[in-house]
Amino acid sequence: MTDLHPFVAGLPKAELHVHHVGSASPRIVAELAARHPDSKVPTDPEALADYFTFTDFAHFIDVYLSVVDLIRTPEDVRLLTFEVARDMARQNIRYAELTITPFSSTRRGIDEKAFMEAIEDARRAAEAELGTVLRWCFDIPGEAGLQAAEETARLAVDLRPEGLVSFGLGGPEIGVPRPQFKPYFDRAIAAGLHSVPHAGETTGPETVWDALNHLGAERIGHGTSSVKDPALLAHLAEHRIALEVCPTSNIATRAVATLDEHPVREMVDAGVLVTINSDDPPMFGTDLNSEYVVAARLLGLDERGVAGLAKNAVEASFLDPAGKRRIAAEIDAYTENWLAR
Ligand SMILES: [Zn+2]
Hints:
Structural class: alpha/beta
Low-confidence stretches: none
CATH superfamily: Metal-dependent hydrolases
Bound molecules: zinc ion
Strand order of the largest sheet: 1-2-3-4-5
Strand content: 5-15%
């Protein structure tokens, strides 16, 4: 079988499910750690590589929180955001909806207006200098409860930065029922934001139904367990509600036991609009390019099939129609050129 890595590396791509802090690569973490020498995070790249080797999920959470702790000033926020875009540009990611949890920064005392300015400044610089277009999804950290939901909705609606397109919900699903967040999603939707909650990653298909029926979900983060409910798959397919599939993440968090058991094939066979994403790439030892190669293997795709997946992400994105046409045309031109070599 052809090695699809070189093709995927140059393929123009859009990414719809990737977290801000979760995208901090060892290179970025080293830069942040150097700014805050009192932190316990190593600054030496080799020591960092060990630090990023997770022994279990609890260790992953520890490391994630230690990176959160490095983001203390608006300058840290700007640096993280721009450098994440740089890592994306290196993979030919042309457009990304980055999930940001502003509550984790504002509750730590970062001024909310300065926070918005920092991400917007990074967004404009990334587009001008790297050619990667960034948009934001502000998500509620579910584990922090309704106070976090209230604060996230307020920040999204009242301070709404220009790049904000959607409203999300992350964190654990077990013990955090989706319907309780309805009032906050209603506010965000009334303000013109799209609804993209995580659902059905670690709980069953009923959570996906809750996200659709109570939170007005237009795309579903993960939605892995949707395959357990044929009626749900049919509903997703009929309404073109895309699933944001993150294969390696699902293994790392044990949402799925092994890659070979990943249900992405069943999703595609049911006609669901499937998009491929990386979630928290450096923390799961992956990047978007690797996720495309994994998906191609699971789905038995050739170059044109992989290009089709990339176009699914463009279609399911919240980019304007002209922007969608532009990236889709780039994908087609690149693929035809590649195959004509
Ligand atoms: Zn996620």
